[in-house]
């Protein structure tokens, strides 16, 4: 059994609860002690880093308008660079490293990508959701991500409507995000897809809502629970 020195234990704490120590962080942690350093990391002061200014959602280009499509691509690319740089800077400078590490962790778990979403503003909103809920209960985070606008686009939920259920969001959420294989069956996927019908995303307001006429209001059974889910 290897017993870490107090200095090594503090260093590991800073590595695991953040992105590694900055200049003087290990010495300061040793001075405070392991327990006090852990408590400070678990209960950080609110991070007041300003949100990035991405501007308005770029207007969609008309079909066949090559110049407009090029201008749109350039505007989106600039927003991508702004958002990515802002987050990387925040990871380095934050006084709440555990919050940012968990935001980064959940970003990898609930895997989405700007490559398909094509809206840095929607990705920013998702980033904010992961940050605000990422150190709390998984149930609250999972529920929020199921109706997150970027996630809805990423997993084709806008194609999911009554009479033509798209199973992508239901299947990926059960298999990859929430339950794991062997904890659901194909009926659960089909019924959950029906329960998730009707969600649409408004890119201008970066919000999602259910359109009643697109939602399947019939009885479903998901994971043993039956009702108008």
Protein architecture, described:
This protein is 54% helix and 6% strand. α1 packs across α2, α5 crosses α7 and α10 crosses α11. It has 229 residues and is mainly α. The N and C termini lie far apart (52 Å). The radius of gyration is 21 Å and the shape is flat. It has a two-stranded antiparallel ribbon. The model has no long low-confidence stretch (mean pLDDT 94). The chain has 11 helices and 4 strands; from the N terminus they run αααααααααααββββ.
Q: Quote the beta fraction.
A: 5-15%
- Main sheet record: 2 strands, antiparallel
Helix percent band: 40-55%
Dominant shape: flat
Determine the structural class based on helices, strands and strand pairing. Answer: mainly alpha
Mean pLDDT: 94
**Unreliable segments (pLDDT under 50, ≥5 consecutive)?**
none
Number of H- or I-type helical stretches: 11
The strand order across the widest sheet is 1-2
CA radius of gyration: 21 Å
Distance between the ends:
52 Å
Total strands: the figure is 4
Series of secondary-structure elements, N-terminal to C-terminal: HHHHHHHHHHHEEEE
């Amino acid at each position: 059994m290897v017993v870490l020195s107090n200095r090594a234990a503090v260093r590991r704490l800073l590595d695991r609860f953040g992105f590694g120590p900055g200049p003087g962080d290990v010495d300061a942690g040793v001075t405070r002690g392991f327990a006090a350093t852990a408590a400070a990391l678990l209960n950080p002061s609110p991070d007041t880093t300003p949100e990035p200014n991405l501007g308005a959602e770029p207007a969609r280009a008309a079909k066949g308008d090559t110049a407009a499509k090029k201008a749109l691509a350039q505007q989106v690319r600039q927003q991508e660079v702004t958002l990515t740089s802002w987050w990387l800077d925040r990871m380095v400078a934050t006084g709440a490293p555990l919050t940012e590490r968990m935001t980064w962790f959940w970003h990898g778990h609930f895997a989405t990508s700007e490559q398909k979403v094509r809206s840095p503003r929607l990705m920013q909103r998702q980033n904010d959701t992961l940050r605000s809920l990422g150190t709390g209960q998984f149930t609250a985070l999972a529920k929020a991500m199921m109706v997150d606008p970027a996630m809805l686009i990423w997993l084709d939920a806008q194609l999911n409507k009554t009479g033509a259920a798209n199973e992508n969001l239901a299947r990926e959420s059960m298999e990859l995000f929430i339950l794991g294989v062997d904890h659901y069956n194909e009926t659960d996927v089909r019924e959950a897809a029906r329960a998730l019908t009707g969600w649409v995303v408004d890119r201008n307001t970066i919000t999602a809502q259910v359109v009643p006429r697109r939602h399947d209001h019939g009885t479903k059974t998901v994971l043993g629970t039956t009702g108008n889910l």
